Amino acid sequence: MPVANAISIPGDRYCHKLNHRLSALSSARKPMVTTASSSSATSNAGAFTTIKETVTFEKEIKKSKFIAIAGPISNEQSAHSFLNQVKDPRATHNCWAYKVGDQYRSNDDGEPSGTAGKPIHSAIVSSGLDRIMVVVIRYFGGIKLGTGGLVRAYGGVALECLRNAPTCLVKSKVPMGVEVPFDLLGVLYHQLQSFEVEDIKQDYDTGKDGITMVSFKVDFDRVEKLEEAIKANCSRELVFYKH
């Protein structure tokens, strides 16, 4: 049964088989417990720090008002949605930058090239945060800042905005599936609960008598330990697959 892939972990496709036979097999029938996890190369794997909510920072520089608005995003589409939500069409400029893993974009929105979007992006990189967007709105006050002044203004308000933002650590989830005999469900669910897995689903339509498929998502850094725990606590022949 294929397992849906929500957030994937990078790595080459491979199949690694581990056989573990316990000496105390009480039954002549040897059911197979199979775990499968799907993975593909993405730039958004592992753990990252982002901001919890939308935050705002405002500063006046030589009579121009700068308002930086930062918010969490997940992809390019959500970045465009965030921009449309916070930008002010009445403002002189709505400059922005966002970062999602290794993907990033920025826009000067009419300011001299490289004086707005790029310093906003540099502020994001300096903060160490990921999957965020910063929009800096400028209301021109009549005094030109010059190239250096614009870089310092846009980069500075963006960085101050991110410094004030509440952050959180997010761990990517690996989708997994376990084909398990009915009589081992209790043992399996105990292990899943101890590892705080999410989105547990069960499917009896496996085409195998007495076998059900249990799918779930687990933190990327707990996959191997969970596999070991299932192997150690289910007294049957175990075969693990990753691909």
Automatic annotation (TrEMBL):
Domain Impact N-terminal, chain residue ranges per copy: 62-162
Pfam families: Impact_N
Gene3D superfamilies from the UniProt entry: Impact, N-terminal domain
Spans traversing the lipid bilayer: none
InterPro entries noted in UniProt: Impact, Impact_N, Impact_N_sf, Ribosomal_Su5_D2-typ_SF
Family of the protein in this entry: Belongs to the IMPACT family.
Protein name as catalogued: Impact N-terminal domain-containing protein
Source organism: Hibiscus sabdariffa
Biological classification of the source: Eukaryota, Viridiplantae, Streptophyta, Embryophyta, Tracheophyta
